[in-house]
C-alpha cells in the first residue's frame, strides 16, 4: 500500500482537494498544520497517479509531493491516528463529542460519530472546530433553534452536530458527490434526520435558513455574499474556512447586506466570523 501525500499552503487547499477528489472519489485524508494543509490518497503500487517527485503543479500552484510505503499494520495505525475530539467547555454548557465508531460514547455530550474512512472531514480540522464552537455558543441560550443550513457540508459533521444541539430541520449541500453521499451515510449512522444535496455555490445559492453555517474559503464566501437576496438573509451566519488574515475581506463582503460581525475566533492560521442580521 502506498500513501501519496500532497502538501500545500492553506490558500491552495480548496483547489488541491478538488483535483485529488477527481483522482480518488472514495475520499481524501486531510491533515492541517502550522502554515500548511496536507492531503493524502492511498492505493496499491502502480494504481496512483504520477505527480512527480518532491514538487508538482496542481491547479496552477506548486505543491510538495511525497509517496511513502505504508506498513502492513497500517489499518491499526490509521485507527490510532483518528482520536475522539471534545469541543466546548463542560463547565459552561453543552459540549460536542466527535468520535470514530470504535471509540466509546461520552455521557452528557452531543455526540457525532464519523467514520474517517468516508473522509471529507472528521471534525478535527480547525475550521470545523471553530464552527462547532460557534454553534455551542449559540446553544448556551437554550433551544430549539429552528432550521439550519450547512453550506459546504463535507461529511456532514456540522449539520449533525447542529441537530444534536437542537436545530431542526437541518439541511446541507456540497459540490462533491462523494461528500454528499458521506454526509447522508453519517446522518444515518447518527440517526439524525438531515437532507443533503449536491449544489455548486458558484452557480447559485440554495435556500438559506435562519441559522446558516458556511465553512468555505474566503473566495467562496465572497461568492455566497454576492448571491444573497434581501428576502432570504440568515438571522445568524457562521463563517469559517478563511485564513485569519482574511477577516476584513469577508466582513466587507457581507456588511452591505446588513450582516454585522458579532464575533470572531482563531485557531492557528484559520479564523471564523459570526454575523447577525441588523434590523432597521
Computed Rg: 19 Å
Order of helices and strands: EHEEEEHEEEHEHEHEEHEHEE
Largest sheet: 7 strands, mixed
Question: How helical, in percent, are the residues?
Answer: 25-40%
Work out the strand percent.
25-35%
Residue stretches low in confidence (pLDDT < 50, at least 5 long) are none
Instruction: Output mean pLDDT.
Output: 85
**Shape assignment:** globular
In DSSP terms (H or I, runs of 4 or more residues), the helix count works out at 7
Secondary structural class: alpha/beta
CATH topology of the largest domain: Rossmann fold
**End-to-end CA span:** 60 Å
Assign the CATH architecture of the largest domain.
Answer: 3-Layer(aba) Sandwich
CATH class of the largest domain reads Alpha Beta
Number of strands: 15
* Oligomer category: single chain
Strands of the widest sheet, in order across it, are 11-10-9-12-13-15-14
Total number of distinct structural domains? 2
The CATH H-level superfamily of the largest domain is: Vaccinia Virus protein VP39
Descriptive notes:
By secondary structure, the protein is α/β, with parallel strands linked by helices. It has two domains: 2-77, Alpha-Beta Plaits (2-Layer Sandwich), CATH 3.30.70; 83-277, Vaccinia Virus protein VP39 (Rossmann fold, 3-Layer(aba) Sandwich). 26% of the residues lie in helices and 34% in strands. It is built from seven helices and 15 strands. It has helices at residues 13-23, 74-81, 126-139, 157-165, 177-189, 218-226, 247-254; strands spanning 2-8, 29-33, 36-43, 54-58, 61-69, 85-87, 96-99, 110-113, 146-151, 167-174, 194-198, 211-215, 236-243, 259-267, 270-277. It has a seven-stranded mixed β-sheet, sandwiched between helices. A five-stranded antiparallel β-sheet has the order 2-3-1-5-4. Strands 6-7-8 form a three-stranded mixed β-sheet. The chain is globular and about 60 Å long. The N and C termini lie far apart (60 Å). The mean pLDDT is 85.
Amino acid at each position: 500500500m502506498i500513501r501519496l501525500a500532497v502538501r500545500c499552503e492553506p490558500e491552495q487547499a480548496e483547489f488541491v482537494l478538488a483535483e485529488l477528489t477527481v483522482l480518488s472519489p472514495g475520499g481524501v485524508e486531510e491533515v492541517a498544520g502550522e502554515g500548511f494543509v496536507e492531503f493524502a490518497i492511498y492505493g496499491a503500487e502502480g494504481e496512483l497517479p504520477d505527480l512527480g517527485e518532491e514538487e508538482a503543479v496542481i491547479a496552477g500552484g506548486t505543491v510538495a509531493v511525497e509517496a511513502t510505503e505504508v506498513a502492513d499494520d497500517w489499518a491499526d495505525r490509521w485507527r490510532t491516528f483518528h482520536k475522539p475530539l471534545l469541543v466546548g467547555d463542560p463547565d459552561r454548557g453543552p459540549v460536542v463529542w466527535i468520535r470514530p465508531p470504535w471509540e466509546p460514547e461520552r455521557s452528557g455530550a452531543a455526540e457525532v460519530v464519523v467514520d474517517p474512512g468516508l473522509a471529507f472531514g472528521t471534525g478535527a480540522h480547525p475550521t470545523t472546530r471553530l464552527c462547532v464552537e460557534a454553534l455551542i455558543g449559540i446553544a448556551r441560550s437554550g433551544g430549539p433553534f429552528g432550521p439550519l443550513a450547512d453550506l459546504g457540508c463535507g461529511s456532514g459533521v456540522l449539520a449533525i452536530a447542529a441537530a444534536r444541539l437542537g436545530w431542526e430541520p437541518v439541511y446541507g449541500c456540497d459540490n462533491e458527490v462523494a461528500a454528499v453521499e458521506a454526509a447522508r451515510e453519517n446522518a444515518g449512522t447518527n440517526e439524525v434526520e438531515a437532507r443533503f444535496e449536491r449544489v455548486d455555490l458558484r452557480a447559485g445559492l440554495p435556500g438559506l435558513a435562519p441559522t446558516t453555517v458556511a465553512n468555505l474559503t474566503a473566495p467562496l464566501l465572497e461568492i455566497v455574499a454576492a448571491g444573497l437576496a434581501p428576502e432570504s438573509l440568515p438571522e445568524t451566519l457562521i463563517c469559517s474556512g478563511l485564513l485569519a488574515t482574511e477577516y476584513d475581506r469577508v466582513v466587507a463582503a457581507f456588511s452591505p447586506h446588513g450582516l454585522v460581525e458579532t464575533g470572531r475566533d482563531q485557531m492557528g492560521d484559520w479564523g471564523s466570523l459570526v454575523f447577525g442580521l441588523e434590523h432597521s
